[in-house]
Every structure is written in C-alpha cells, then in structure tokens.
Amino acid sequence: MRDALAARLRAAGSIFAEDEADLLLEAGDGEAVRLRALVQRRLGGEPLEYVLGWAAFDGHRLRVTPGVFVPRARTTVVVEQAARRLRRYDRVVDLCCGAGAISVALLQRVGALDLVASDVDPAAVDVAAENIGDRGIVVAGDLFAPLPDRFRGVVDVIAVNAPYVPTASIATMPSEARDHEHRVALDGGTDGLDLHRRIAAGAGEWLRPGGALVIEVSTGQSEASAAAFAAAGFQVSVESDDEVDGTCVVATRPA
Fold first, then answer.
1. Using one digit for the tens of pLDDT, what is the confidence trace for 12-60?
2. CA-CA distance, 21 to 215, in Å (whole number)?
3. How far apart are CA 27 and CA 221, in angstroms?
4. Which string of DSSP letters, residue by residue, matches 16-36?
5. Do residues 38 and 28 touch, judged by C-beta distance below 8 A?
6. Do residues 254 and 209 touch, judged by C-beta distance below 8 A?
7. Which of 70, 111, 235, 254 is the most buried (most CB within 10 A)?
8. How far apart are alpha carbons 40 and 58 in whole angstroms?
9. Cα distance between residue 113 and residue 47, in whole Å
10. Residue 186 and residue 49: Cα distance in Å, rounded?
C-alpha cells in the first residue's frame, strides 16, 4: 500500500512522496475510509500540514488548521537568536505568533517564561492557545495593541515572524501557500516591510533597556529592515542560518 500511495503522490508532484505516504498512513490509523479522505485532500492540492492537522517545527508537532500560517523551518533562526538572549522566567512577546511555533520552541529551549503571544488572525489565536496551553497567554489584536500593560517597558525579547511578502509577489508563491494560507499571514505591503516599519516604531515602548527584538526577514530585504530599526533608535545586526536558509534582524534597545 505504501508504495502505491507514494507513486500516486509522486505523480501529483510531491517531492517527498515516500515520507508523505508514511505520514498519511499514520494519520489514517488503519481506517480505509479515513485514509482515502486524507489522500484525496492531499491529491487535491491541500497542504500536507492541514491534511494531517499538525506541522513539524523545531522538533515539535504543532496543531494547525486550514488557513493558519504553517511554520517554516527557516523561522528557527528567530528561535535561536531569541533563545540565546533569554533566561528562565524572562518576559517574552511572540508577535504575529501564528500557530505559536516560536513560543513552543522557546519554552522548550529556555524553560518557563513569562510569555504573551499575539496575532491579528482569530483562527491563529485559537490554534496558538491550544499549542501553548497554560505555559503562556495568547491574545488577539493588531501588533502591540492587545499586550498587557504590565509588559510595557520591561520585555526582555520580542520574537517576530511578521508577514514580509510583497503584495505583488503573493501571486508567484507556491499554490499551497497562496491558495490556502490566510492573506493576512502573508501580505507585507508594497515592499513587504510595512509591518516591519510599524513594529520598529512601536517596539521601544515595550522593550526594557538592553532588550532585543528578533524579526524574520528575507536576505534581500534585510538591509532595508535593519535600516528601519536603526532609524527608530535601535542597535541592529543581521543574523543568518544557512542550514535552514533563515535570516533575521536583531534590534536591541540601547541600555
């Protein structure tokens, strides 16, 4: 059965047909009707993560539902840079949290944190709350607006994966993202950096002196993003991880 399923997936364009076949068989749990339904969804072009109901990220299986942004491996560059700046019980904001991938990874790497995750997409907030559980607070709203007032000026790290795809480039994205993930999780405005500029303008009010914001960006946009944070008074650096093809800007509030 596995070989036949892999062959069908390969014919449909899957690069990792054998791995997908194994995961679908696991999800089917020996029930032929359930497996058939899962396979039909996948062959119809639905992202594998939505079909399975989870996405792999930094060693975790995170719950995802249709429309919610699917975590990508490249975002581990944000986790790595944030984690090295944190100690247990530090205050952390996971901004534009999506499914809560960064939060879950930081909690595993660092330990208990005073953590708030936020997103403007109600569907993402629901999923993040499920993934994070009682280890943090998840709030709904636009960027910093829903954060608790007690975090103002005392946050140690703000970790961000804000949308940074230029509006015109969304049409060229793979169908699995373009046609299935909510537009609000992808669209970064004309040059992709609208949210980066808004975050740069507002982050200083929330970070403690010496606190850092770590934000994912493409390599080609990194200089422009760094310049936006520098213009807002931050000390900036650009960090990359070639292994996961990830790039981020680290913006530190002067002590």
1. 888 888 999 899 999 998 889 999 999 999 999 899 999 999 999 999 9
2. 34
3. 38
4. THHHHHHHHHHHHTT-HHHHH
5. yes
6. yes
7. 70
8. 28
9. 32
10. 17
Radius of gyration of the chain (CA): 19
Q: Which residues pair with 139 in a beta bridge?
A: 118
Give the whole-angstrom CA distance, residue 148 versus residue 67: 27
Average pLDDT (59-73) is: 97
Terminal alpha carbon distance of the chain: 61
DSSP annotation string for 144-163? TTTS-GGGTTTEEEEEE---
pLDDT at 194 over 90: yes
Query: For residues 242 and 237, what is the distance between their CA atoms, to the nearest angstrom?
Result: 16
Q: Please, which pLDDT band fits residue 197 given cuts at 50, 70 and 90?
A: very high
Query: pLDDT of 115-167, one tens digit each?
Result: 999 999 999 999 999 999 999 999 999 999 999 999 999 999 999 999 999 99
9 band by pLDDT with thresholds 50, 70 and 90 = confident
Model confidence at 86: pLDDT above 90 = yes
Go through 190-208 and write b for each residue having 16 or more CB atoms within 10 A of its CB, e for each that does not.
ebbbbbbbbbbebbbebbb
Q: Which helix (H) or strand (E) holds 247?
A: strand 246-252
- What DSSP state is assigned to residue 137? E
Report CA 217 to chain centroid distance, whole Å. Answer: 12
